Write the structure tokens for this entry.
Amino acid sequence: MTATTDHTTEHSTGATFFDQTTWDGRFYADGWRQGTEVADIVSPSTGATLGRYATASPDDLDRAVERAVEAQRTWARTPAQERAAVLRRAGLLLEQHQSLLAEWLASEAGSALGKAGFEAGLVAAEFHQAAATAMMPYGQLLQTDRPRLSMARRRPVGVVGVISPFNFPAILSARSIAPALALGNAVVHKPDPRTTVSGGLFFAAVLEEAGLPAGLFSVLPGGADVGAALVDHPQVPVLSFTGSTAAGRAIGRRAGELLKRAHLELGGNNALVVLDDVDVAAAASAGAWGSFLHQGQICMTTGRHLVHERVHDAYVAALAEKARNLPAGDPASGAPLGPIIDSGQLSKVDALVQATVAAGARLEAGGTHDGLFYAATVLSGVRPEHPAFREEVFGPVAPVVPFSDLDELTDLVNSSEYGLSLGILTGDAYRGFELAERFESGIVHVNDQTVDDEAHAPFGGTGASGTGSRFGGHEANIEAFTETQWITVQGSIARYPF
Ligand code: NAD
């Protein structure tokens, strides 16, 4: 590990906005605070220390929630137009400082420059979308049997606990933080410890600058223990968790015991279906993007390529050729593939690849690594029982499986416990649209690969991928971050039989 790198001077734009001396070694709760324990922020590409963050203690959590409860009462009564204005200003600030956030995503999360720029741009859209959500109708006028007004209205839930992962740290935090705040809630946020800045502290600076009243938003860095304490906190009634299926199940169990609502966006093992009428070169380009973007560390990564036997060999050859030509290296140097986030994740990826080869699959490209840089890997001859087919790999690995008819294809797609995203590539788009009916998947793209997200589209999966379409768009966000209240109003008190 090298000496601390000061991003104030290293980053090219917006340095005065996110001045490292303000936040270094701190967490954020009602302002920047010193913590009892401090940890390094380390670049997975270079091993350089980029800064430090303070880990939040149970007392820090209690104080942050207490302040959030207090601040939320006033915020819920603040006119929607004013709440929307804060979110809009935050969106504009994120646009203004997009390159700074992208630089953090590249250095802290190991994102290639294209992915980092895309993510930083989409984050601004999440805030603009949330500003619009604040101004949406928030209830319904109901029919009633009596002379009265009867309404179902939506109210903020209070304090929302947000827990996010390392891979798309900015989007997967923003997509809950922004709408929850817009709808009149306070938010206590715990980012992944490996992406504390791009998944958390950066938003504290943005929202502070945008004029969000004090106490409404806090960032409490730390590991699973801090996350579990947030889940347990009696004054946090709604949880928004994005991460692994194993952690999601544990949080779901605990939320059930505590009778809390938990929105769970979990893992995926997404299929890309390649039909026999496809343009093979275009299909291989889409397939490579789906499997190798951000080193395959995306819940929507294409984890299974299901290819019609007539085009299978040509597709494997084209995909392997693409993989062999994708260099991995420091994103700052423009490499299309960055590092795997840490050695633990890298060992899991490699173990799944080696076990699949040992079980009989052929290594068409990759299967090697240099430090944390794992080569883009293509496996052919993969069978449904092989580990790389059954499990979420979360690395730059493309297992390819041939199929001969649509029933076999349907069984292959639906054999996965996950159901997040699916791509269907075909020369006949309507055929793809009709076929989509057969598959268990929360998201389907015809003539595209599996990785996509828009701030206004409903995002979510079925089965082991989580609890459904909970993020994106006004309806999903209002459903996720408000409670329904049935309220009736009549002009005078009715007389009852006794
Ligand atoms: P992870 O579940 O280990 O960690 C995610 C976050 O949860 C981190 O902040 C972590 O500190 C916290 N955490 C872990 N255990 C916890 C617990 N018991 N209680 C409270 N908090 C806890 O996830 P990971 O392996 O680092 O991330 C990758 C996973 O996330 C993959 O499975 C991926 O598919 C999934 N993911 C899903 C989506 C989606 O939208 N469906 C998006 C991105 C990533």
